[in-house]
Amino acid sequence: MDPSPLEQALHAARALVLADLVAGEVAEADVVSLVEDSVVQRRWWVQQWPDGAEYVAGLVAQDVQDALLERYGRWPLCPVCEAGDPHALDVEPELGPDPYWVCHKAGVKVASVGSLGLATGGGMSSS
User: Fold this and answer.
1) Sign of the four-CA dihedral 46, 111, 63, 1
2) 12, 42, 80, 118: least surrounded by Cβ within 10 Å?
3) What is the pTM of this model?
4) pLDDT tens digits for the chain (127 residues)?
């Protein structure tokens, strides 16, 4: 039995965010649990609004980013700005398809959600 479009969107979102966590070398078990918690919450959200399935990857990325900020600090840190205080990238669009990480300080698109490893050479600090 093929997974529903809803489940496909959720699995894709999970995979993209996990890829970014692995690239940032922060994919510890407790952090992966944050991804799973977000996917559970977003499953309900997409069941209520099926047309929002294409927005799930960006929403899961934002959920995980917010949860990490509360528990550990900023993530992902900007790999573009070398001077000044470390700052996190933001997900754009906040609610839209094809989400990407952006540095608002430099005004540049850094990478698509799921592709941070390509933009950072495979690793970046979580502190």
Assistant:
1) positive
2) 118
3) 0.89
4) 567 888 999 999 999 999 999 998 888 999 999 999 999 999 999 999 989 999 999 999 999 999 999 988 999 999 999 888 889 999 999 999 999 999 999 999 999 999 999 887 654 433 3
